[in-house]
Amino acid sequence: MSASNESGSVDERPVVWFDIDNTLYSASSRISHAMGERIHDPLDFDRQCDGSLPLEDMIKYDPAQRKLFEDIDRSKVRVWGLTNAYRPHAERVLRILKLDDLIDGLVYCDYQVKNFSCKPEPEFYQDAMKKAKLSDPSKCYFIDDNRGNIDGARAQGWARCVHFCEQGLEAMEGGRTKQIDNERAPGAKVDDEVKIVTTLEELRGVWPEIFKA
Ligand SMILES: [Mg+2]
């Protein structure tokens, strides 16, 4: 992984942003539960999670998933990770899934920075675009299992958003177990542009233009 096009000031190739946790692997792994049990002090988050979770036993490399990433046409788009996790955890997940060489860049939460930003805060998406040297939000593709994160991206004008929604499974968020659903924040306006998928394979049909012919 490396930041692409470090030398140039802009790179207007679209970016496909992938959330990592509970998106690149199923919530059925229950990693979020295991994380939730261990987080008491946010500053200890990475040491506690990355150092002690047996991720290798909880998620498995899936050749079909790797193929999906290989089939994305890199002459048309770039592929980045966009995660609220800290970098070592995100990189470890990508290594286990054997996707690390297929991700062009990674935007993560920096827990060492006071008042760090994260999804769904506007600055996080804006900083992500700066890091990718992309100025046009209509060139952003984005998939995330958290509908609030999708709404945050849509508010920034990210055009091609997909909600990865494993309806019926449970995930843990903010220390609470929650049934995965497509529930929106109260008062959120209808957004028919957001597609819903239950497997990443469905992206071939939702975003056919990013895949090799
Ligand atoms: Mg997630």
From TrEMBL:
What's this protein's name? Answer: Pyrimidine 5-nucleotidase
> Species lineage, top-down?
Eukaryota, Fungi, Dikarya, Basidiomycota, Agaricomycotina
Tell me the PANTHER family matching this sequence.
PHOSPHATE METABOLISM PROTEIN 8-RELATED
Gene source species: Asterophora parasitica
| Molecular functions (GO terms) | nucleotidase activity
A biological-process GO annotation = pyrimidine nucleobase metabolic process
UniProt superkingdom? Eukaryota
| NCBIfam families, alphabetized | HAD-SF-IA-v3
